[in-house]
Amino acid sequence: MSRSGRTPASVAALLMAVAVALAGCGFGESDEGAKSVSGAPVRKPTSQQSDMVAAVSSSRSDEGGLVAMHFVLAKRPKVGEPVDIEVSLTPSIALERLFVRFQAVEGLQIVSGGQTEQIENAASGVAIGHKVTVLPKADGIFYITAVVVADSAKDSVSRTFSIPLIAGEGLSAAPAAPPSASVSEPARESTAQ
Are the C-beta atoms of 142 and 88 separated by less than 8 Å? Predict the structure, then answer.
């Protein structure tokens, strides 16, 4: 018998009872996750967060934010070939609603996944996945803008992210710099007399 008067068997039974009770009350994984307005459960990201890159936010870095966005490309983008972009949205606090709309610049077309469904009850720290398929129409450096609208119990916030994409060969070689006056020889004014 231990000092507290409990036997190892009673301690094990107590721990088992606590584990069962916690499992029964929904501690840990839950069937009650975020849902889209249509009632369908939201998609989990197919890629691990460690394989993804943070999208560039237009807000100041010290503001934090209600949602973090990461992404990964399925393959190197080639002109004329659709490419999938796996996006992960991770709320930093519990959200009542979450919605994202994606927009592409000229030279890049969004083929599918241009917006998420409106997601309700997104839990803090639980990643939500979305797939955007784009079609590069020319070589170049492009970006996709993602406008995230997040509603919490206290705030309604809109935040803009950019997802950069280099298609094909990227940019062609930079043009040669125009000739300039030599720094060591100052320009002389001609004096006509």
Answer: no
In this prediction the pTM is 0.66
In a domain, 8, yes or no: no
3-class secondary structure per residue, 4-31: CCCCHHHHHHHHHHHHHHHHHCCCCCCC
What three-state secondary structure class fits 76? Answer: coil
**CATH number assigned to the domain comprising residue 124:** 2.60.40.10
Position 58: which residue type? S
- Does residue 98 belong to any structural domain of this protein? yes
Q: In which domain, by residue range, is 42 found?
A: 35-167
Does a structural domain hold residue 42?
Answer: yes
How many structural domains is the chain composed of? 1
The rounded distance, in Å, linking the Cα atoms of 89 and 126 is 8
Digit-by-digit pLDDT tens for the chain (193 residues) are: 444 455 554 434 433 433 333 333 332 333 345 655 555 556 666 656 678 898 988 776 545 678 999 999 999 999 999 999 999 999 999 999 999 999 999 999 999 999 999 999 999 999 999 999 999 999 999 999 999 999 999 989 999 999 999 998 877 655 555 555 555 555 555 555 4
Give the separation between CA 41 and CA 121, rounded to whole angstroms.
11
Within a domain: 26: no
